[in-house]
Specification:
The protein is 51% helix and 14% strand. With 213 residues, the protein is an alpha+beta fold. It has two domains: 148 residues, no CATH class; 40 residues. It has a four-stranded mixed β-sheet with strand order 1-2-3-4, with helices on one face. Strands 5-6 form a two-stranded antiparallel sheet. Bound molecules: zinc ion (ZN).
Length: 213
């Protein structure tokens, strides 16, 4: 997710995201989840994430108002795309160490996953799931055209080099290709016509062939 959007989330939900800044990880985020820690999902899921984090911020406020110590508040470790869904991972310290939120989190997690399946991960408009498993993405029709996960290598190359911001290059290359095709077409036709007239000339003048020693 774009850094400016992440910064908004950090400002809106300082308690829920208190350990998510990289400099706050040591000792707070278990080593096993550090590899996936961070807000790595697409910009289009910003609003969904903002709403979900709001729930956790209010939950923590309620805990804090009852005198719960900071090290007992739940905390977010990652917001990422997993199998085409927004996966928000929230942990809480237990007497044994750090464990995943259980019963409370199940319903919330299912809600956000379901909502993300119908929301374009790039722009936030209504979208649909494309691809399966780890390759699954959620795109609207416009974003799909730019980033279809099953596009061919040629299509990917063309998209990469001739995206919407590069129309001038595409136009120039297209015109150059057309010019080359037309040029070679004319040359080829000229050669064919020349060959045909030579053959006709030779057939009409048999002496010319006979005079060859
Ligand atoms: Zn989109």
């Amino acid at each position: 997710m774009r850094l400016t959007l992440q910064e908004q989330l950090f400002q809106h939900h300082p308690k829920a995201l208190r350990y998510l800044r990289a400099e706050a990880w040591p000792g707070h985020i278990p080593a096993i989840v550090v590899a996936t820690a961070g807000i790595t999902c697409g910009n289009g899921w910003f609003s969904l994430l903002d709403q979900q984090l709001d729930y956790w911020e209010r939950f923590i406020d309620a805990q804090a108002s009852q005198g719960a110590a900071e090290n007992t508040w739940p905390f977010v470790v990652s917001a990422r795309r997993d199998n085409g869904e927004l996966q928000l991972t929230v942990l809480i310290r237990t007497p044994d160490g750090i464990g995943v939120m259980s019963s409370l989190w199940e319903g919330m997690g299912a809600q956000v996953r379901q909502a993300s399946r119908g929301t374009c991960e790039c722009c936030g408009k209504s979208g649909r799931t494309l691809g399966t498993g780890k390759l699954a993405h959620v795109f609207c029709t416009v974003c799909e055209a730019h980033a279809h996960p099953n596009r061919s290598r040629i299509r990917a190359w063309v998209d990469h080099h001739f995206d919407s911001g590069n129309n001038l290059v595409m136009t120039v290359c297209g015109l150059a290709l057309l010019f080359c095709a037309a040029y070679f077409g004319v040359v080829l036709m000229g050669l064919m016509l020349a060959g045909k007239s030579l053959a006709q000339g030779a057939a009409a003048d048999p002496d010319q062939l006979g005079s060859t020693p």
